[in-house]
Amino acid sequence: MQLPPLGLYIHLPWCERKCPYCDFNSHETRRVPEAKYIRALLQDLEDDLHLLQGRAVETLFIGGGTPSLFSANAIQQLMRGVAERVPLAPMLEATMEANPGSAEADKFFAFKEAGITRLSLGIQSFNDTHLQALGRIHTSDQAHAAIVFARGAGFDSFNLDLMHGLPGQTLAGAESDLHTAIACAPAHLSWYQLTIEPNTVFHKRPPLLPVEDDLADIQQRGEQLLAESGYAQYEVSAYSGPGFNCRHNKNYWSFGDYLGIGAGAHGKITFADGHIERCAKRRQPQDYMAAETGNFVGSHRTLEQSEIVGEFMMNALRLNEGFTVSQFVSRTGINAARLTPQLELLQQRGLLHCDCGVVKATDLGRRFLDSVVAEFFSDAP
After folding, report:
1. Is the pTM of this model over 0.90?
2. 220 Cβ partners below 8 Å, 6+ apart?
3. Chain centroid to CA 144: how far?
4. Is 56 in contact with 7 (CB distance < 8 Å)?
5. What domains sit in the chain, N to C, each tagged with a CATH number?
6. What does the pLDDT look like over 222-249, one tens digit per residue?
């Protein structure tokens, strides 16, 4: 089978303060062990070189934590080390997450010089009261400054990460946040509802969130406002101007492959014989940095056919464009007939639209996407 495109995810797990809604593998620190961690990252990457199978890395994403806590020199060393070890596509998209609280103009210039082509700024809200409720350490003024710095450093492509459904937020408040974000003219907006995840402070002490009817009104009004402003929704929570889709994330949603290096990073790799493997690296940063060659992997497994089908649908049906049946066969190596019972059932229920080999969720299906996807994790509806 033809191998899918390959991305590279790099996890930098430290932040200044853990947000109460965050369930990512992130750890508070006052001092980042930059040199030791980057040595481990590059050794981890070397251990994974056989997984490239002749492919170039087409997209790269540095996430966290707060990657911009790392010094400019450290990011330059990391990017240089990656380029020395793996072939990078000529039109590489290299994204790095940054928080306004750690934003400095000279760092942004250096990140650009290091090869970062795209920033993703964790704004979350432009309302200081809501920022405090979310445990964020930056202010609205710092958010605006970070956007100015990013544009001044030459980042034509940057994303603003924005939440809605926040504690105490009204429809007017959510709309105000979007108006402010749109006025900043980012190429890309990630706009998504705050959810309460297990093992977070908010899960132990839940804040008072807007009720379901208000959340529905916020979603509807926000989608309308973004469309009117020229932002096309291409995924459940992703909106962009023409030509500015996040290619790295779209590779995830299209069931592409990716290497994951760093503490707790996940990877998914397809092999020439058709089997697909997932792995996760050692989760605790200290354990990860202490690992020796061949010992960075914390867990590893080969996917069963039902898992492959379900995971493909879990990703591909998030995209507004859906997927083609031929793409399903190409990315999974599974005969298209495997989908027939579920597709027929879900189309009858008005949850999927199937036409000329293209499958996508209907408006109703997008509202109940978890239930739609669940149908594909078993062999029969």
Report:
1. yes
2. none
3. 23
4. no
5. 6-251 (3.20.20.70), 305-377 (1.10.10.920)
6. 999 999 999 999 999 999 999 999 999 9
